[in-house]
């Protein structure tokens, strides 16, 4: 059976989709960190500049975006049959496919597969899906050490930290902070290590080289899976992924079920969109693809774990399902004024920024992430930047309508609706509003709204008064 019995939401108590506090509370703390804002501002500005330059080279960028959007919508409409096709082709190529309804099942599957090899250490390719389900924590609880090999993920792991960006997990750290983490946590590091980027990268390379050569099990995610051929693809910039995908004896890939493309040719579109929108490159330095098992070449045991964890619940929402089109480029984060000031940790989920504000609440159930749909100014910059044209602002508004509202708020808006539905009351309310022309803040209990914004100044003359004079 390949039907997972969904939709349902991601389970509580496992993984990294729910924060310990609401976005407003976490954001308030983050805004006090001036160093964080400087780090974020510098990094996002640099990425935007690079991305804009390479996107500007393509005369058909908008057509590529439209193609990507259409391909994703088509894939979601045919997801069950394409997943069956993928399973058949992976199996025919010598791989083994596992279906995981949620984070608990996925973690158990991977843990059991690693234990079956007789090893207690795995190397990991950067993977949002494994962070989402809390795989590292599950492996550790079973006595298995997971070593992150992506440089930024390694920084986060050594610093006992959490990622704050989809593409650049350590974006909240500057090089001086990274040097201190390496000196404190990295075995065998040179005490004379400086904060020069080349030296930091060299230290990480030396630390990881022995691990690459001696670890027999690897865990990866996947950027894309081709249903037509059973091929998996990982795109990265450092070469660590290539090492993990070729050197070990066993490779376990955890992939969200939405990462499918129907045919090999469809990759053409996404291999142009993703690097330009994410890292500002014309193509990724390392694009690794593999199909099942090839005798004598690469891992001789390949397992693919297809992860739901709330995705079919998202698919069931005709408006919100666009969130599943995301190719994890992080372009929306890099242009978002809210993210640039608060950073990723304030979102409480492994998926921060605008895409996290619409994806996380749907994966967990809106009531578990009720504040995230409000983590936006609705400026629309994310929609303009998204390479697959996800209408994030519209989904945010849609999800705000799904959020459970406090009784007092319902009463207040009910009163507003009643007033606006009765012309005489509305006229008196307009005239009364003139009395607040010089007020910048609302009185309690309404002052929560004006805690971070000024009260708009009412016009000196209403439209009805203007009309009556004419």
TrEMBL record:
GO-annotated molecular function: 4 iron, 4 sulfur cluster binding; metal ion binding
Keyword Iron-sulfur found: yes
Domain Lactate utilization protein B C-terminal: 401-470
Gene3D superfamilies referenced in this protein's UniProt entry, alphabetically: Alpha-helical ferredoxin (1.10.1060.10), NagB/RpiA/CoA transferase-like (3.40.50.10420)
Residue ranges of every copy of the LUD domain listed in the record: 84-293
Record InterPro entries: 4Fe4S_Fe-S-bd (IPR017896), 4Fe4S_Fe_S_CS (IPR017900), FTHF_cligase-like_sf (IPR024185), Helical_ferredxn (IPR009051), LUD_dom (IPR003741), LutB/LldF (IPR004452), LutB_C (IPR024569), NagB/RpiA_transferase-like (IPR037171)
Residue span, 4Fe-4S ferredoxin-type domain: 323-390
Biological processes, Gene Ontology terms: lactate metabolic process
UniProt keyword tRNA-binding present: no
Assigned keywords, A-Z: 4Fe-4S, Electron transport, Iron, Iron-sulfur, Metal-binding, Repeat, Transport
Name of this protein: Iron-sulfur cluster-binding protein
Source organism: Winogradskya consettensis
């Amino acid at each position: 059976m390949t039907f997972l019995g969904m939709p349902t939401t991601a389970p509580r108590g496992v993984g990294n989709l729910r924060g310990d506090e609401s976005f407003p509370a976490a954001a308030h703390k983050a805004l006090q960190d001036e160093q964080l804002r400087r780090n974020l501002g510098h990094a996002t500005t640099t990425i935007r500049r690079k991305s804009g330059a390479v996107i500007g080279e393509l005369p058909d960028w908008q057509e590529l975006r439209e193609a990507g959007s259409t391909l994703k919508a088509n894939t979601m409409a045919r997801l069950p049959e394409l997943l069956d096709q993928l399973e058949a082709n992976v199996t025919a190529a010598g791989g083994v496919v596992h279906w995981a309804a949620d984070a608990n099942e996925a973690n158990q599957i991977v843990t059991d597969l690693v234990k079956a090899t007789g090893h207690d250490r795995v190397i990991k390719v950067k993977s949002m899906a494994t962070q989402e389900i809390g795989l590292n924590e599950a492996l550790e609880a079973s006595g298995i050490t997971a070593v992150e090999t992506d440089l930024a993920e390694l920084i986060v792991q050594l610093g006992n930290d959490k990622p704050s960006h989809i593409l650049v997990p350590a974006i909240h750290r500057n090089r001086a902070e990274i040097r201190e983490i390496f000196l404190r946590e990295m075995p065998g590091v040179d005490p004379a290590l400086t904060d020069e980027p080349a030296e930091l990268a060299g230290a990480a390379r030396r630390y990881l080289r022995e691990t690459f050569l001696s670890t027999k099990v690897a865990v990866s995610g996947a950027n894309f899976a081709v249903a037509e051929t059973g091929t998996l693809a990982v795109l990265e910039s450092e070469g660590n992924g290539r090492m993990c995908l070729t050197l070990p004896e066993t490779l376990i890939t955890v992939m969200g079920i939405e990462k499918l493309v129907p045919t090999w040719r469809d990759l053409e579109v996404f291999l142009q969109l993703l690097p330009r929108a994410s890292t500002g490159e014309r193509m990724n330095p390392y694009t690794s693809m593999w199909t099942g098992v090839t005798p004598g070449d690469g891992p001789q045991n390949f397992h693919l774990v297809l992860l739901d964890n709330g995705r079919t619940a998202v698919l069931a929402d005709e408006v919100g399902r666009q969130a599943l089109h995301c190719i994890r480029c992080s372009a929306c984060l890099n242009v978002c004024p809210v993210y640039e000031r608060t950073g990723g940790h304030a979102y409480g989920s492994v998926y921060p920024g605008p895409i996290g504000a619409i994806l996380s609440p749907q994966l967990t159930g809106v009531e578990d992430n009720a504040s995230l749909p409000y983590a936006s100014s609705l400026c629309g910059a994310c929609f303009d930047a998204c390479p697959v044209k996800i209408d994030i602002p519209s989904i945010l508004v849609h999800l705000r309508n799904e959020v459970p509202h406090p009784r007092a708020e319902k009463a207040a808006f009910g009163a507003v609706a009643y007033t606006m539905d009765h012309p005489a009351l509305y006229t008196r309310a307009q005239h009364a509003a003139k009395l607040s022309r010089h007020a910048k803040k609302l009185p309690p209990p309404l002052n929560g709204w004006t805690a971070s914004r000024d009260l708009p100044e009412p016009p000196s003359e209403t439209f009805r008064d203007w009309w009556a004079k004419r």
